[in-house]
Every structure is written in structure tokens, then in C-alpha cells.
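Worked example 3 (structure in, sequence out).
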């Protein structure tokens, strides 16, 4: 009898540990967004571009084509897309592009975006002077918005042996549901116990 009770207790511990692991992994997928943002801005990892800084210095003869990609995390009930597929631009020239987002849920939903560029080696030459990344965006049911991105590509790219032969750059945004909004909507609750205790998602700043 004692051995059966001991086995039952061990089984319960295993089940609880498994639920806790799954819950932790789901929660971290939300909480990792601001941590990833800070890490990338500090290190330039994964093609993270430069934000803020000086204005575009003025166009030179060399051109590149900037492509625009959009992704949405499965937890976020939004339609998110680039308003244009690609834009040819001179190095040093100020560029302007737009993304569109629409909330397809019947409740308000809050999302936050991360971004990178590929090839990753171009990240240090790609400057965004204004964008919607890392700032929480709340869309009402059925609401759609256009979000501008202002950018320029440093002419120094053409002098760098590692980047001078690159003629196409892809700017990629991925929208996630914020941790706080996912908790309010019960998205995390179904993953198991303890997820709701992870706290709210901090707001990253540029």
C-alpha cells in the first residue's frame, strides 16, 4: 500500500513538473520579446538595425532594393502585412514605407513588434529614424491602422568588403501579443498552472 502511495505521489510530481515546464515555455515566448529587443539593440545581434541617430546624409549614386516582410505570432488575432513589397532606394536617401495591421478579434487586442534585417551583416548600416517597433499597440475590434517606417541605408555599406556586393535588403517585422494582454484574454491560462504569476511584460524603449 505504501509503495502504491509513493508511486502515486511521484506520478503527481512528474505531471505537475511537466505542466510547469510547458507553462513556463509558453510564458517565456511572450516575456522574451522585450528581453530580445534590449539584447539586440545593445549587441546588434541577428541583423538588428540602428535606431534614432543622425538624419539621412543625402543620396549617392548606388542603389539598393529594400524588401518588406511581415509575420504574426499565432497567439495574435491580427492581419499584419506590408503595404508595399519592395522599394528601390539610393544609399543615403531617406525612405518611407508602411505596414498595415487589422484586429480580427471581437475584443481589443494589444500587440508589440520586433524587427530585423537580412542579410544580418547589413544591420549596422540600416538606420530607422521612426517606426512602431517595441511600442505596444492596442487595436479595437475590427480596427485597422497604417504604421509608417522611416529609414535610410548608410553609404558606407558600399565601401565595406562584407556588404558592398549586397543589392537587396529585407526588413522583417514580427508582431506578438503582449504578455499582459495574453493573460487578460486567458491565452496563457490553458497552458497550465503558475503561468499567470510571471508578471506583466515590461515596455521596451528605443
Amino acid at each position: 500500500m505504501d509503495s502504491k502511495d509513493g508511486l502515486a505521489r511521484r506520478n503527481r510530481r512528474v505531471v505537475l513538473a511537466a505542466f510547469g515546464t510547458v507553462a513556463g515555455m509558453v510564458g517565456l515566448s511572450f516575456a522574451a520579446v522585450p528581453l530580445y529587443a534590449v539584447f539586440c539593440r545593445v549587441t546588434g545581434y541577428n541583423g538588428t538595425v540602428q535606431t534614432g541617430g543622425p538624419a539621412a546624409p543625402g543620396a549617392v549614386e548606388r542603389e539598393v532594393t529594400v524588401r518588406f516582410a511581415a509575420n504574426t505570432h499565432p497567439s495574435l488575432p491580427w492581419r499584419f502585412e506590408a503595404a508595399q513589397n519592395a522599394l528601390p532606394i539610393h544609399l543615403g536617401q531617406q525612405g518611407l514605407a508602411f505596414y498595415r495591421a487589422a484586429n480580427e478579434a471581437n475584443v481589443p487586442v494589444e500587440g508589440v513588434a520586433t524587427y530585423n534585417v537580412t542579410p544580418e551583416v547589413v544591420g549596422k548600416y540600416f538606420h530607422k529614424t521612426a517606426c512602431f517597433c517595441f511600442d505596444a499597440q492596442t487595436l479595437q475590434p475590427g480596427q485597422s491602422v497604417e504604421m509608417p517606417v522611416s529609414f535610410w541605408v548608410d553609404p558606407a555599406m558600399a565601401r565595406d568588403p562584407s556588404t558592398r556586393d549586397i543589392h537587396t535588403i529585407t526588413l522583417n517585422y514580427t508582431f506578438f501579443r503582449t504578455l499582459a494582454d495574453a493573460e487578460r484574454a486567458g491565452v496563457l491560462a490553458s497552458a497550465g498552472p503558475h503561468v499567470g504569476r510571471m508578471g506583466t511584460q515590461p515596455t521596451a524603449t528605443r
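Notes: The longest helix spans residues 2-43. The two ends are 62 Å apart (CA to CA).
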